[in-house]
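Researcher: Next entry in the queue.
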Amino acid sequence: MYTITSTKTLHNGIEMPRFGLGVYKMDDPKEAFNAIIKALETGYIAIDTAAFYKNEQQVGEALRASGKRREEVFITSKVWNTDQGYDETLRAFEKTLTALNTDYVDLYLTHWPVPEKFPETYRAIERLYDEKLIQATGVSNHEIHHLEKLFATANIKPMVNQIELHPYLSQVELRHFCEENDIAVTAWSPLGRGRVLQDETIAAIGEKYGKSVAQTIIRWHLQSGHIVIPKSVTPSRIEENANIFDFELTAEDMTAIDALNRNERFGSHPDHFAY
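Model: Structure for this entry, 275 residues:
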């Protein structure tokens, strides 16, 4: 049975929490700080940020204010598209470390596969790993062909691929490829930017357990083997999203949610992003 501190073992042996707080679009510094503090108080042990989110500083401040030791919280950050390339990524990482005010980052990702640049960006991430400035290497929004291009030159395969993933976009082929290559999958937009929350099938399943649609979806992610990082600045929602460890979906429930896939994206396709 999963708990809020359950982890997934990455292919280098690092334990990555299966559940955490995403902080995308937490633009107001005070609101971001309060949300992260609330999550840490609730028992979350992972925070997913990025240079692009402009709240890395609040993540570091909340961690220190929480009284938790650095090693108790798993922090993920990402290098943004305009900072990609080998030297540029190393410089961007220095800014991330400064903003977080920490000695290391647990997981550092290429945010999007910028054409002609993402292999060099990942090479810089490998260097950060070799220098023990990060605990794990990873990418985000990488399709199979991007990963295969990295495999051709990388010394170590990415340990994580963070992708848009929810019941309306279940990414089966990409997930299977990652599983075959021992790459953990993290779901961003795990609730489909809120648009899956009206789904009647999921609502009916949740009702059996006295759970909301959001809780049912998050549980589906966990039982599907995904790492999941729902975001919210609302204290009650932060608690609700974490209240998913006292029930288990049946095989029939899982199959019914799996069947909702429409290959429908609410974010950009990595091959058509406005780089």
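Model: The first helix runs from residue 29 to 42.
Researcher: Noted, moving on.
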